[in-house]
Design goal:
This protein has 247 residues and is α/β, with parallel strands linked by helices. It has one domain (8-232): Spore Coat Polysaccharide Biosynthesis Protein SpsA, Chain A, CATH 3.90.550. 37% of the residues lie in helices and 17% in strands. It has helices at residues 18-31, 50-56, 73-83, 103-111, 130-147, 163-168, 179-185, 209-228; strands at residues 8-14, 37-44, 62-67, 88-91, 118-123, 159-162, 190-195. It has a seven-stranded mixed β-sheet, sandwiched between helices. Helix 1 (18-31) crosses helix 2. The longest helix is centred in the C-terminal third of the chain and has 20 residues, at 209-228. The chain is globular and about 50 Å long. The two termini are 22 Å apart.
Length: 247
């Protein structure tokens, strides 16, 4: 039987989100009804039965990837994209704060003519604590000033891109927070999409503002180094010989 290739794949990194699995699965199914899609939940070393809870739902469009130990959100996204069978990927957080009904809007530009390299969600009316919103605003302002990536909310989990383009980017931990800058640096156009935001459905965040700040400062300077040395032409602009054109 030939391998199936859905129209798009949804990649959801999850760590200790067992309480959110059923809610998220139902919302994805409703949002993507009638579409040819798959979802890949990446269990990043959970100890609360996240993967088992997802498998028990018995959805044929849902596939599970498991890390033996926690490797971080970027590693989870990367594993999910590698496992994906669709040419277009939509990522979202596993805590229920990214409403799945935004998925069709996110993937639509990638399925149209002259697609962008990246569709980056920008959260409207964020349902977070004041301290979290303040920390995010400060971090986005600093990052935007140094990287000049034209993105005011790079931390939004809702993003869409072509699988092949993403896998050409250099992988490093925490890269998911710098995708607009990385796509820009590699000659791929970034389109921003305003998206809604919801309160966390259940459970609590796995990260604190202080943890994000510590890793963010180091990563920021690392990304500046990577961007300065990036290839300045996109694959779509290159005239390839027929036997060398990337798929």
């Amino acid at each position: 039987m030939p391998e199936q290739h859905p129209e798009f794949s949804i990649v959801v990194p999850m760590k200790n989100e067992a309480e959110n699995v059923a809610h998220l699965v139902a919302a994805i199914e409703a949002a993507c009804e009638g579409r040819d899609f798959e979802a890949i939940f990446v269990d990043d070393g959970s100890d609360d039965g996240t993967a088992e809870t997802a498998r028990a739902l018995g959805k044929d469009w849902l596939r599970i990837v498991q890390h033996p130990r926690s490797a971080g959100q970027s590693a989870a996204v990367h594993s999910g994209v590698i496992a994906a069978r669709g040419p277009v990927i939509c990522t979202m957080d596993g805590d229920g704060q990214n409403p799945p009904d935004e998925i069709p809007r996110m993937v639509a530009p990638l399925l149209a003519d002259n697609p962008p390299g990246l569709v980056a969600g920008e959260r409207q009316r964020r349902q977070d604590t004041w301290s979290k919103r303040f920390a995010s605003r400060f971090a986005n302002g600093l990052r935007g000033w140094l990287l000049q990536d034209g993105t005011r909310d790079t931390g939004c989990g809702l993003k869409a891109f072509r699988r092949a383009d993403f896998l050409r980017l250099p992988f490093f931990n925490h890269m998911h927070r710098f995708l607009p800058a990385l796509f820009n640096a590699h000659g791929l156009r970034v389109q921003h999409m305003p998206v809604s935001h919801a309160e966390r459905h259940a459970g609590r965040s796995n990260y604190t503002n202080f943890q994000r700040a510590l890793v963010g400062i180091v990563d920021l300077f690392g990304v500046m180094w990577v961007i300065r040395r990036a290839k300045r032409v996109s694959p779509d602009e290159i005239r390839w010989p027929d036997d060398a054109k990337p798929s």
